[in-house]
Each structure stands twice: as C-alpha cells, then as structure tokens.
C-alpha cells in the first residue's frame, strides 16, 4: 500500500483541474461494457508482513516492522503483525477465495526474514517451503503467481548494520533474490524486485513514520540510491537464475502531482516534488542518470558521492515491465512542509493542499483521473514499456451487519471509476497489461495497525473469519465479463 498517508496537508481545500482535462473526453454511452483486451491480467495483491502472521515460526527472525511496531507510539493501538490475517496457516482457504473471485493473477510478497533470517547466508528451507506450497496451491487453482521480493520487511540484523543507507544492503538483497529465484523460478514467471522504494527510503529514513523510524534527509537519499542499486543488482541475478521467458519488473508508487495554481512558483514546487518522488527512481532505472535538478536541490544535504562509478549502469539494467501503485493525487504549491519531512531538499519550498471532493477512510481524495494522468505520462516518457497497475484500492469503515454481510458501495464506486480510467488509458494507447486490486484481505495497515480496512474480503481478526464483501462479488462479475459497465 502506498504512502500518501505521510503527506503534509493544509487546512484548506483546493479545487484543481486535472492536468489532462479528463472531463472533456467523450464518455461512452451508459450501460456499455468497457471491455479490456484479451489476456488482460485480473489480479489482487497482498504483502507478507500485513497478512502472514507466524512472526516467530519456521526460523523467522524480526524485521524492521516487528521492531517498529513494538516501539511505543509508532503504530496505532500498539498493533503488530504477529498474527495479522494468519495467512501462514490459512493460505489454502485464501487461495480458494481467489479462485472463487476468478482472478487470473495473485501478487504476493516474500518475507525476507522468513527466508533468510539474518539477511546473510543460506536460505531456511522451512521458510521457502511456505512459498513453495503457496505457489503450488495457486497453480493448482489456475492462478498465476506474481512474486514481490521486497515489501518493506528488511531483516532487523541488516538494519542494525546500517540498513538501506548502507551500500552493503543492496548487495545482500541481490543474494537474497538469487535464493528465492532458485527455489521458485521453475514455477513463478513474473517477478517484482521492490515494492514502493520511495516509501522505504523517505518514510522509513526521512520522516520516520514507517519502519525503521529514522529521520534524516541524508539517510533517505542514500537509501533511495541503494534501493535503485539493489533493484538493478537483483535484476541481473534474476536474469542469470530464471528462464529466459521470465518477466522482471519493479513497482513504484509514482505521485500524480498538480500545481495549486498556474503560477511559476507552484509549478516549480511540482518540479521539486517530481524530482524527489518520481524521477529519483525513473531516471536511474530507465535512463541511467540522476536528475540534475534533484542534485542541485539537495546540494545542502549531500554531494551524492555515495553514487559510485558503474552504479548507474547497474541501476538501469533493462526490465520487462513497470508496476504502478496509485491511490490519489497530490496538490502542490510553493510554501513549506512540516518537519521532519519526507521531501528531502524540498521541505522549505513546498506545501500540500487536500483536494476537494469525496474522501476515503484514510482521508485521501478520490480522483481516478490521477491514475489516467500517470499512465499516459509513462506512455509518453517510456514508450514501448508494458505497464501493470499493481495496487489500487481504498479503505472504508466496513463492518459486518447482523446478517453477516459487508456492504461497501463506496469501495465499489472507487474501483469502478479507477478501472474506467485504466480502460480509457488503454484506449488512448497505453500498454497496460493488468490490474491488481489492493487488497484481497483486510490486514495490518502499517502505522494504522488494524484500524483501516482495504480488503474486498472482511477479516474478523478475533476469529479470523473471512467474509467476502459486496466489492468482492462486484469484482468477480467484472472479471467474468471482462470489463466494467459505463455509467455514461
């Protein structure tokens, strides 16, 4: 799940026009089925620490999130992922739920400390065995497994040695990637190296709202580079260990940015955030360079001497597709942000204003046009690169009624609008190959603990009872007919 929750906000709302003026596009006639291309990948997604539980089983040792969640005041209600949705023990039931939905793909993450507890040395076979069983169960249900190697659960021992701000962590990650590829590479055809490295770098080391909770602009920038280096190094290892038909990808939570006004100052604010939120990953990964304006903006923080000769050749190792996680856009203006901030080099120049309109339980604006804007931007900037929407969804205050039903019409409306935006992007020439709904299950929602529910399957955390919500049935119908119905 993305990290817009860390965005500083002012007290005033703002009405800002979409960068593409999406309202001017012709709308299809009401009732028309907006069909997606043949072979479109209909998926759902989860993350290991958010659902697995079994925090001390099979040799697993603490990750940075185990440590962070036990630090007083860091996670709402003192919640931890020790049990979460107990997926470790209920995995066959969860796969059956996916089969009933009709999903073609399931995006899961591998827990690094379950597979390689110290972040060094050989794999723990008991840890790998869980993922072997999961993959076998998925394939038996006709569901394609999509493995993410890192979704924020760095082994604590590596953090104690310096964590992502240290170069060695990137090398350790590449070795870990090889271990997982060796175990699952004969059955998993789609691999994602990292999920949302922006969150890991700037929320984990910049403003400290995520694990490991450090607050340093320099540490955040160093971590961002080492995430890029880890991605490139792991990609090279995966190319060596996997069949030539394997698809290797990276997932970024790119920020859809809009200026509050059309003034030069507000547009420069957008440029600054685009550099530290988006181009800090896009440029090294796809162009083998650092953004010159980012280097200039952050000159008071670092001279970037931690980028060594040959690094950018590694970071730009070619990949087969790019995953995009999107939840809501950001409205940016000239100003200043609260400290500590995740916006290294931009804190004194940029402010954020919440957009008007409906909002989710996370207090995030609902605006599907932002997803369209990101997808079309990538079509133009990275022509020929296939895209996947690897996370998209919304939290609402769901509950089971006296009959045991969970009605979530707001989520259905959110998902419907965003799938409509994906369809419109495809019609406009964007090569979007799939959509992964976040999330299959209610889960441990990071610093929010169990207070926010993103799942299309309700989880009663006391009993671990699973109850498909109305949105689950809606999604199953969308998959069955291969598209959403236009409202006109």
UniProtKB/TrEMBL annotation:
GO molecular function: beta-galactosidase activity
EC class name: hydrolase
Active site per the UniProt annotation: 391 (nucleophile)
Lineage top rank: taxon: Bacteria
Xref: SUPFAM superfamilies: (Trans)glycosidases
Reactions this protein catalyses: Hydrolysis of terminal, non-reducing beta-D-glucosyl residues with release of beta-D-glucose
Transmembrane segments: none
Sequence segments annotated as region (Disordered): 1-30, 53-81
EC number per UniProt: 3.2.1.21
Pfam families documented for this protein: Glyco_hydro_1
Alphabetical UniProt keywords: Carbohydrate metabolism, Cellulose degradation, Glycosidase, Hydrolase, Polysaccharide degradation
PANTHER family referenced in this protein's UniProt entry, alphabetically: GLYCOSYL HYDROLASE (PTHR10353), LP05116P (PTHR10353:SF36)
Protein name, UniProt field: Beta-glucosidase
């Amino acid at each position: 799940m993305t990290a817009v929750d860390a965005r500083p906000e002012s007290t005033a709302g703002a009405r800002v026009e979409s960068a593409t003026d999406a309202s001017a596009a012709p709308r299809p006639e009401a009732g028309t089925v907006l069909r997606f291309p043949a072979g479109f990948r209909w998926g759902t997604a989860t993350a290991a620490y958010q659902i697995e539980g079994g925090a001390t089983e099979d040799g697993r040792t603490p990750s940075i999130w185990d440590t962070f969640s036990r630090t007083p005041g860091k996670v709402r209600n003192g919640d931890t992922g020790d049990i979460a949705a107990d997926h470790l023990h209920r995995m066959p039931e969860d796969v059956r739920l996916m089969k009933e939905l009709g999903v073609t793909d399931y995006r899961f993450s591998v827990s690094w400390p379950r597979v390689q507890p110290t972040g060094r040395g050989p794999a723990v076979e008991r840890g790998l065995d869980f993922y072997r069983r999961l993959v076998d169960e998925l394939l038996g249900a006709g569901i394609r497994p999509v493995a993410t190697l890192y979704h924020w659960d760095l082994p604590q021992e590596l953090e104690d040695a310096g964590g992502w701000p240290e170069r060695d962590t990137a090398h350790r990650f590449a070795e870990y990637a090889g271990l997982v590829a060796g175990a699952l590479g004969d059955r998993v055809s789609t691999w994602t190296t990292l999920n949302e490295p922006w969150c890991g770098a700037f929320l984990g080391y910049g403003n400290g709202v995520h694990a490991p909770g450090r607050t340093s602009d320099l540490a955040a920038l160093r971590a961002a580079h080492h995430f890029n280096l880890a991605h490139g190094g792991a990609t090279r290892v995966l190319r060596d260990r996997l069949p030539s038909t394997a698809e290797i990808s990276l997932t970024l939570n790119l920020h859809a940015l809009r200026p509050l006004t059309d003034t030069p100052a507000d547009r420069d604010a957008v440029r600054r955030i685009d550099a530290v939120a988006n181009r800090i990953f896009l440029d090294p990964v796809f162009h083998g360079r650092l953004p010159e304006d980012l280097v200039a903006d952050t000159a008071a923080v670092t001279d970037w001497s931690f980028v060594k000769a040959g690094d950018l050749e590694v970071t730009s190792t070619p990949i087969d597709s790019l995953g995009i996680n999107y939840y809501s856009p950001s409205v940016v203006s000239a100003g200043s942000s609260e400290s500590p901030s995740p916006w290294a080099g931009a804190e004194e120049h940029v402010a954020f204003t919440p957009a008007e309109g409906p909002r989710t339980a996370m207090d995030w604006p609902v605006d599907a046009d932002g997803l369209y804007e990101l997808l079309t931007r990538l079509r133009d900037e990275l022509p020929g690169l296939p895209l996947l929407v690897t996370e998209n969804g919304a939290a609402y205050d769901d509950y089971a009624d006296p009959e045991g039903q969970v009605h979530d019409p707001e989520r259905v409306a959110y998902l419907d609008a965003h799938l409509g935006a994906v369809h419109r992007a495809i019609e406009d020439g964007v090569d979007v190959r799939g959509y992964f709904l976040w999330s299959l299950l209610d889960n441990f929602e990071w610093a929010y603990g169990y207070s926010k529910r993103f799942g299309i399957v309700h989880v009663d955390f006391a009993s671990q009872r699973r109850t498909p919500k109305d949105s689950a049935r809606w999604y199953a119908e969308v998959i069955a007919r291969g598209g959403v119905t236009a409202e006109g």
